[in-house]
Specification:
The protein contains 12 helices and 19 strands. It is α+β, with helices and mostly antiparallel strands. Helix 7 (289-297) packs across helix 9 and helix 11 (419-430) packs antiparallel against helix 12. The chain is globular, with a radius of gyration of 22 Å. The two termini are 41 Å apart.
Length: 491
């Protein structure tokens, strides 16, 4: 999916404990959704990366807290032949959690596995441009591409591109083995995942000796768990209506940052009458974004008019192009000859979808469009909507950074499938010049907005609550991750 669709946070409420009872070298975090597995190279759920990215698994490069791309398992890299070849210099002395040595052969295996015919990688498109991967030396890898790709180091920073060992790759879903500062402890399904500090880590040892991720989907229980001290932090807090209470309590700190989460009312462009641009525009024109932000998110969120993050320097504000206009919506439906329209609206568990879905249904009803709402669990949504394409409308937040290229995928769940957009993305991939890349990204935003592919609602805010003595948690979310490498308790 954009792979890793935003759905995170939550904890099962346990026995109440005093508010600052957590030991100074451990942490318990809340997450809304439990991941379906722990293998970031074979699934689309954001909850996977929220546990394992930078903690358990590492890639050649990685995303830093400010969104920049920094060295990971590759200490440096060089673009050759105009960006058509990349040579990565690997770190030495790195070990996997099971004691196996890391070297260039692991990179070759990982990239070949990700791009292979049998690959189940949710972001297989990241690897499609690779023609060959060669271990030049134990600590040097050369990747030859089918053409120049100025974004290749960035692609290697995705959670889907983390490096794995062939010996342990088959069991990553339930027994993940990586090279990160934490190793897998246990998974009590329905309750928690625990990570433990890896003493053989190649880099600076984290301050924490262990980390527990606990799962809860109920906002009320999440509030109680934080307030009681049952969890130390909820990086993506699901009850924004209670943030004022935490802000008034000196035991806690509240942070409101940005995410890469474009929240959209996605439409199945292959299903009549949604294959008619007039019907799609009518749906978009029925929507009032601010009502959804206020009603579902208690004011936290930034309106968007295309699939692009407002904090990005190449963002184009297209919200006025698709502003609410109920009279135009009714006229477009009449022009398209669509009467008595009833559409299925599939809603996954996050509160932005469930709460937002009720508001969207009311707004659509105001222009004569009926909706049949189905509340789905995460696994059901992935299987039925994302993989199966069996839906008319759905609300989801796409949390992968710079993922506008999903609109060029012919098998993607909303089935845009426009050759001109595919050609635009091909040009973008082949372009190294930053000014030209910027212009192409702006054209891409304008094209999908003009085609009313989806109703673009808002950019998800990252509202988090934590014990006031914790420091080092990310305020913003340039990728879906709870990076614990710099987290520590202030004494």
């Amino acid at each position: 999916m954009a792979r890793r669709l935003l759905l995170a946070f939550a904890v099962t409420l346990g026995a109440a404990v005093p508010a600052f009872a957590a030991p100074p070298d451990t942490i318990t975090l809340g997450m809304v959704l439990e991941p379906p597995n722990l293998d970031p190279t074979s699934g689309a759920a954001a909850a996977v990366d929220e546990i394992v990215y930078a903690n358990l698994f590492e890639g050649l490069t990685r995303v830093a807290s400010d969104g920049s791309i920094v060295p990971g398992l590759a200490e440096s890299w060089e673009a050759l032949e105009g960006g058509g070849v990349y040579e990565f210099k690997l770190r030495q002395g790195v070990k996997f959690h099971d004691g196996a040595d890391f070297n260039a052969s692991d990179v070759v295996f990982t990239l070949d596995r990700a791009r292979g015919e049998e690959s189940t990688n949710a972001q297989k498109v990241l690897f499609e441009g690779i023609e060959s991967v060669e271990a030049v030396a134990p600590d040097v890898v050369r990747v030859t591409l089918s053409g120049p790709d100025g974004a290749f180091p960035w692609k290697m920073a995705w959670g889907d591109a983390v490096i794995v060992d062939e010996a342990s790759a088959a069991n990553l879903a339930t027994n993940p083995v990586g090279t990160g500062p934490f190793r897998f402890g246990e998974w009590r399904q329905g309750d928690r995942v625990t990570l433990e500090r890896f003493d053989g880590y190649w880099g600076e040892a984290p301050a924490l000796t262990s980390a527990t991720f606990r799962f809860i989907s109920d906002p009320t229980a999440a509030f109680a768990a934080v307030m009681s001290g049952d969890v130390d932090a909820f990086p993506n807090f699901p009850a924004p209506e209670t943030l004022a209470q935490f802000e008034a309590d000196p035991r806690f700190k509240v942070t409101v940052g940005t995410t890469e989460g474009e929240t959209i009312l996605a439409m199945n462009n292959a299903n009549p009458p949604l294959d008619d641009i007039r019907v799609r525009e009518a749906i978009v024109r029925a929507i009032n974004r601010q009502e959804i932000i206020d009603g579902a998110m208690f004011g936290y969120g930034t309106p968007i008019g295309s699939h692009f993050a407002p904090h990005h320097p190449d963002y184009v504000d297209l919200t006025e192009q698709s502003a609410q206009d109920q009279d135009r919506a009714r006229a477009l439906l009449e022009e398209a000859g669509v009467t008595d329209l009833s559409l299925r609206l599939a809603l996954p568990p996050p509160s932005y979808a469930r709460r937002g879905g009720e508001i969207v249904a009311s707004q659509l009803a105001a222009v004569g469009i009926k909706t049949e709402i189905t509340n789905m669990e995460w696994a059901q949504w992935l299987e039925t909507v994302f993989k199966g394409g069996d839906f008319d409308l759905t609300i989801i937040s796409h949390t992968e950074p710079m993922d506008i290229d999903i609109y060029a995928r012919d098998d993607y769940y909303f089935h845009y499938d426009k050759p001109e957009f595919v050609a635009l993305m091909d040009r973008l991939q082949a372009t190294v010049d930053e000014a030209e890349r910027s212009a192409l990204l702006q054209q891409a935003q304008e094209m999908i907005a003009a085609d009313y592919v989806n109703a673009f609602l808002f950019q998800l805010a990252k509202a988090g609550v934590a014990d006031a003595r914790l420091e080092g948690l990310w305020e913003n979310a340039p990728t879906q991750a709870n990076d614990l490498t710099g987290v520590r308790w202030k004494m």
